[in-house]
Amino acid sequence: MADTLEILKTNLPQALWETFFMVGTSAIIGVVFGLLIGLVLFLVGSNLFHKNVFLHHLADFVVNAIRSLPFLILLITLIPLSAVLIGDPYTPAGGAIALSIAAIPFYARIAESAFAEIDYGVLEASVASGASTGQVIREVILPESLPALIRGFVLTLISLLGYSAMVGTIGAGGIGDLAIQYGYYRYETAILIVVILLLILLVQIIQWVGDACANHFSK
């Protein structure tokens, strides 16, 4: 028990910081670019805006292709890219790159679905009133879809938290790496239990805060 407490005291704060860095960075990148891609997919797929069948099919194919890859395979294939960008892919920054690439198409599909749920009559009335595409986006599409976008962000964040644990399999750091290095390789079962409890706690907090925000904007 003393050894377990010493391991946690020495390594847990750094592991948590690495996890928060990877998840936070990839969540921001994933939401920003995913939102833009989702918006493009919605606009070029709608008769009300800038319908473009070729562009829609192309973007749709890219999003589906990346989403179809299991995360571990995506992580391994992105190691050369991470090496080019940052030098050493086996770091939290390398893990953040892989998580970002996974998050972008994931949130893009969520965003597109959120936009598609907007009442068609509201969009049609906005366009008929002479509003530009930019005005419709700012004043109708984003406000109307905000609760769904927030819930999608929560889902993305929780998924990234789970993926970040897998990043530990390549030694990129985080609580997943802590669980593997000490809980698995050194048979410290208590470390595994602590990591599992931490992940459960973090997911519960994220879900609670996200639901509260989504409910607030739904009113």
Automatic annotation (TrEMBL):
<dbReference type="Pfam" id="PF00528">
    <property type="entry name" value="BPD_transp_1"/>
</dbReference>
<feature type="transmembrane region" description="Helical">
    <location>
        <begin position="190"/>
        <end position="210"/>
    </location>
</feature>
<keyword id="KW-0812">Transmembrane</keyword>
<keyword id="KW-1003">Cell membrane</keyword>
<dbReference type="InterPro" id="IPR000515">
    <property type="entry name" value="MetI-like"/>
</dbReference>
<feature type="transmembrane region" description="Helical">
    <location>
        <begin position="65"/>
        <end position="86"/>
    </location>
</feature>
<protein>
    <submittedName>
        <fullName>Methionine ABC transporter permease</fullName>
    </submittedName>
</protein>
<feature type="transmembrane region" description="Helical">
    <location>
        <begin position="20"/>
        <end position="44"/>
    </location>
</feature>
<feature type="domain" description="ABC transmembrane type-1">
    <location>
        <begin position="16"/>
        <end position="207"/>
    </location>
</feature>
<keyword id="KW-0472">Membrane</keyword>
<comment type="similarity">
    <text>Belongs to the binding-protein-dependent transport system permease family.</text>
</comment>
<keyword id="KW-0813">Transport</keyword>
<dbReference type="InterPro" id="IPR051322">
    <property type="entry name" value="AA_ABC_Transporter_Permease"/>
</dbReference>
<feature type="transmembrane region" description="Helical">
    <location>
        <begin position="92"/>
        <end position="110"/>
    </location>
</feature>
<dbReference type="InterPro" id="IPR035906">
    <property type="entry name" value="MetI-like_sf"/>
</dbReference>
<keyword id="KW-1133">Transmembrane helix</keyword>
<feature type="transmembrane region" description="Helical">
    <location>
        <begin position="148"/>
        <end position="170"/>
    </location>
</feature>
